[in-house]
Specification:
It holds the Pfam family Flavodoxin_2. Strands 1, 2, 3, 4, 5 and 6 form a six-stranded parallel beta sheet that branches. This protein is an alpha/beta fold. It has a single domain, classed as Rossmann fold (3-Layer(aba) Sandwich), CATH 3.40.50.360. The two termini are 23 Å apart. Strand 3 (92-98), helix 5 (106-115) and strand 4 (144-150) form a beta-alpha-beta unit. The radius of gyration is 19 Å and the shape is globular. The chain has helices spanning 15-29, 39-42, 63-72, 78-89, 106-115, 167-170, 172-180, 200-215, and strands at residues 2-7, 33-38, 92-98, 144-150, 185-186, 190-192.
């Protein structure tokens, strides 16, 4: 594998950082290549700005077209271009972060905002049908992704009946609406719960689970998201009523129930 490890935690002494170090060591020991984007260490700028695209500040700033022109013409900000080169090199993307207010840290959201520009991560059309190629097809088709999250909550509380909501639902905007949208296959996430109460024993369990998930990543069955362009959705991109008629929301957009995220 050629892995880009995208990491967002502000403290190198944290559990998250220790897991990252162990994970990278495991990959190296088994002959895999990796590159790392440690966003806090890089002091990554998460804010989209006209200067990213060499845009004339006196004109209206329409982000999609401006970013696409800059990408096509090679005028993207160097920090954005560097991250795109890392991702183009990789066949696998690992996204690791602490679950803050049930989502990504702002710095990580800003990485996607700035790096996944039109023309690079999305914005192609099937010439035969005229339909946009997304949700299972797209610029990043062929790559795999896995999300690793640490959380203070207990595992059961991030399950199907937990008070915090099911982790796959919490991660739906990232796993389905960002990664799958761009064509990437997404394997089930790895949850490391009880992060604020880690003991030597629970840390050993966490590293064992992490190593196993990394080494089996190429053969892990991806989450069974529905493809946009294989007949499940009508011309208005609405799921056909005969498909999972009793389900709404994220659950309706899987072809079969995903495995529990805490397993």
């Amino acid at each position: 594998m050629k892995i880009l490890w995208l990491f967002a935690h502000p403290d190198e002494r944290s559990l998250s950082a220790a897991l990252k170090t162990d994970g990278l060591r495991t990959l190296e020991a088994h002959g895999h290549q990796h590159r790392v984007s440690d966003l806090y260490a890089m002091k990554w700028n998460p804010v989209v700005d006209p200067a990213d695209y060499g845009h004339d500040p006196t004109e209206r700033f329409h982000v999609g077209p401006a970013s696409e022109r800059a990408y096509t013409e090679g005028r993207l900000s160097p920090d954005i271009a560097s991250e795109q080169q890392k991702l183009a090199w990789a066949d696998t993307l690992i996204i690791q972060f602490p679950l803050w207010w049930y989502g990504m840290p702002a710095i990580l959201k800003g990485w996607f905002d700035r790096v996944f520009v039109k023309g690079f991560a999305f914005g192609i059309t099937d010439p035969a049908t005229g339909r946009p190629q997304r949700y299972g097809d797209g610029k990043l088709t062929g790559k795999r992704a896995m999300v690793i999250v640490t959380a203070g909550a207990r595992a059961a509380t991030l399950g199907p009946r937990g008070v915090n909501g099911d982790l796959n639902d919490l991660l739906f905007p990232l796993q389905h609406n960002t990664l799958w949208y761009t064509g990437m296959s997404v394997v089930p996430p790895l949850l490391i719960p009880g992060a604020d109460r880690t003991t030597p024993e629970t840390y050993e369990t966490a590293t064992t689970r992490l190593r196993d998930r990394l080494l089996t990543l190429p053969s892990t069955t991806p989450l069974p998201f529905r493809h946009q362009n294989t007949g499940d959705y009508d011309d208005n991109l609405l799921l056909h009523p005969h498909l999972t008629p009793a389900l709404t929301g994220p659950a309706a957009h899987y072809t079969s129930p995903p495995p529990p995220a805490h397993i």
